[in-house]
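Mods, move this if it's the wrong board.
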Amino acid sequence: MSFLSKLGFDFVLNCTYPFSKFLTLEQFLFLGLLALTISLYFLFPYLLKHRLGIIAMFLLVAGGLLNGVERLATGCVKDYFNFFNLFHFNIADLIINTGILVSVYILCKKK
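Not the wrong board. Structure tokens:
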């Protein structure tokens, strides 16, 4: 079985949130807002100094908005990429992860 055959398309409605087995929705939202506040205070000003950083911030915000709007509109997020039957994700997730990778690259890059 080839790599590409394992990476398939599979429509899944994701109506849960990360760590939903361990956290209430209120706890998850609080931790998310705390992480966002810390990121805005420490990470984003540093990223604004770099051209790639602006792209990374755009990707992070755009992906978050795409998932957020879909979850608010439907109560779920539609995931359609199946990765080795381990997890499902969508285009917004790819955008967010690309933004994270670019951010890590900028933070680790030597001056």
